[in-house]
Amino acid sequence: MKKLLFTLALTFLSIGFGNTQVKFRRDYNQICFYDSKTKTWSDWEHVEHTLVFNYNSNKDIAHITAKGITLTYRNVGNKEDGYANGNHYQIIDTIDDDGNFLQIQLFDDQTIGMKIIFGETMIQFSKK
Fold this sequence. Notes:
There is one protein chain. Strands 1-3-4-5-6-7-8-9 form an eight-stranded antiparallel barrel. The chain has one helix at 2-18; strands at residues 24-35, 40-41, 45-53, 61-64, 70-84, 87-95, 101-107, 114-118, 121-126. By secondary structure, it is mainly β. It contains one helix and nine strands.
C-alpha cells in the first residue's frame, strides 16, 4: 500500500512539474529580413503576425501569418537563455511543417520581438 501511495504521489508531482510552461500569445505588427549576402537588414514593413507559444503538451509554437495561414514549429527540446545588448532572450530549436530545422529567438521586450533563424536567413518580428 505504501508503494502504491508513493508511486501515485510521484506521478502527480511529475505531472505538475512537467507542465510548468504556460501557453501565451505574442502579436507582432512589424517585420524585416536579413540579407546574408549584403549583411544588412531590410526596412521594417507593417504586417500582422501572431504566435502562440506552448500551445500543446509538446510546447510547440503556432504561427498565424498575415494571410491567415497557420504554420507549426515543433519544439525539439533544446532551449537556451541569453542576453544581447542587455536584453534577455530564449532560443528554442524547432522543426517546421516542411521538416526544416530552425530556431526561434524570443526576446522579453516585445519591441525587439523575435527572430526566426534558419541557416544564414533571419526574419525579425516586432511590436511597434
